[in-house]
Amino acid sequence: MLGGQLPDRELAVTLNRMRCKPPDSKAWTTVRVRELRERLGIAAFDPALPRAETISADATATRLGICIGSVHKLIRKGVLPATQLMPSAPWQIPVAALDTEAVKTGIREIVGRRPKFYKRFQEDKTLRLPGF
Description:
By secondary structure, the chain is mainly alpha-helical. It folds into two domains: about 1-50, no CATH class; about 55-125, Orthogonal Bundle (Multidrug-efflux Transporter Regulator, Chain: A, Domain 2). It is about 45% helix and about 5% strand. It has six helices and two strands; from the N terminus they run H-H-E-H-H-E-H-H. A two-stranded antiparallel ribbon has the order 1-2. The longest helix is centred in the last third of the chain and has 12 residues, at about 100-110. It is extended, with a radius of gyration of 19 Å.
């Protein structure tokens, strides 16, 4: 169970993403998750407990300078160690893993496949529509 592992807000988002419905078939909210957790006696998330420092896949993509799809590809290949507490839960990626040689090699391969003018395409903010 995710109880105690994630804040109630993230639990609500994960349960909704998994299409798990409460008995009244409405969406999960932070309040509903908290009420259920308290009724079942599940501990609340405590950010003060020692945990290995992890970041999300989105934060990993930003930090590494690659897209989220490339992060997921590195995870599937086993190059980037990551865990999910359950299917559809957010990926948790150890910050220490970002500095390993395997990850650096994977990033170099991804960057090496980019088009020759990739940087210019990224910087170009002009929307070009055909016929205009």
